Amino acid sequence: LAPVSAILAALILCSMLIVWTGESVVDAYLLLFKGAFGSAFALKETLTRSVPLMLTGLAVAVAFRSKFYNIGAEGQLYAGALAATYFGTGLVQLPPILMVPFLLLVGALAGGALLLVPVLLKTRLKVDEVVTTLLLNFIVLLVVSYLIEGPWRDPQAMGWPQAASIIDEGLLVPLLAKGRLHAGLIVALLAAVLLWAIMRFSVLGYEIKAVGFNARAAEFSGINVNRTVIITAMISGGLAGLAGVSEVAGLKGYLTLDLSP
User: Fold this and answer.
1) Which residues, in sequence order, are CB contacts of 172 under 8 Å at separation 6+?
2) How far apart are CA 119 and CA 148, in angstroms?
3) CA pair distance 130, 116, nearest whole angstrom
4) Angle formed at CA 260 by CA 257 and CA 261, multiple of 5 degrees
5) pLDDT per residue over 79-108, tens digit each?
6) How crowded is the C-beta side of 63, counted as CA atoms within 13 Å?
7) 203: left (phi over 0), alpha (psi -120 to 50) or beta
8) What residues contact 153, with CB distance under 8 A and at least 6 apart?
9) H-assigned helices in the chain
10) pTM higher than 0.70 for the full model?
């Protein structure tokens, strides 16, 4: 009931603001629904924009299950985009059937690697991960800004701060002839199903939930708490990194500072 309650609470609070402006709440929500689902174009755009939110949402959700509060999914998204840009703009050239999985892999590894610092600080030195993951977002953004304004700047971009385009072999294929919906949606859905299966049926999923419920009890029962938290963080960072790959190789085709939604 928690997600449903959160949505209802948000709608009720927003209704008060709409009433305050003197407008119709019903008309406002009808327009909101129409804008998201009222046409084929609107539905395709809604699905397109949901891809990075699905992947970063999964990233945060799995981390929270082990009581590791990853507030840095946006930074990990950019880490994945950086990796995809570095390898996908001509450094590595493979057939599409290999190039796309390769970029997804390096993007996931980059997202996980970025989260490795906060999780080691937490497990070894008890440093609060909320602070470290949050502040890493700004560090990564500054790195992206430096790169696209400097060494990675595309000379063909007519002065716009952006990196070179991902080669055709590395682009996520469009799912429909018209519109921007791409194969990143399939990646996000598969990730959701796989994560559900891990949490529901695997020993790792049991350990993650046990650590989240009570770390001391989990440790007493023989679970290596630090190892479980580190593995969970790597999964979390990897999912957020996939979001970055989906945006840079599926939606835009090149890295920009405003890549994250």
Assistant:
1) 100, 182, 183, 184, 187, 246, 249, 250
2) 28
3) 14
4) 130
5) 999 999 999 999 999 999 999 999 999 999
6) 29
7) alpha
8) 147, 161, 162, 163
9) 2-20, 25-37, 40-65, 73-88, 96-125, 129-149, 184-201, 203-213, 215-220, 225-246
10) yes
